[in-house]
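Bench notes, afternoon.
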Amino acid sequence: MAKYTKRSHILPKFRIVLYLILFTCGGLLFGSIVWVFHRIQTRFGDELAEVAAALMSILILALITVGMRAGWSLDRFIRHRRIDLWRIHQSIRPTGYFLSLLGYEEVQPQLSLLNQGL
């Protein structure tokens, strides 16, 4: 099994795609909060709309924090070579291709000078 412990840079084209997805989701999220704010404002008033928008923003920030923590944990999981112990990894064949897209490289064992006979 290959060991994915070395992290390199993500491919530039893939990075652009990830940034476009991130900005698109951020724009849709902001638009949704504004839309909910205006709907509540027209029916129940300014005060309740401000409270609802604040609560939604706090919830979204909490979910972003949980997602960042999960991503960091997954990165550490891959770098510490524990991905080979995962059952789903063993059943999925193109995992190596997906990990290489994310910037992980296979670590090749290096022979010492004593093993080479020099």
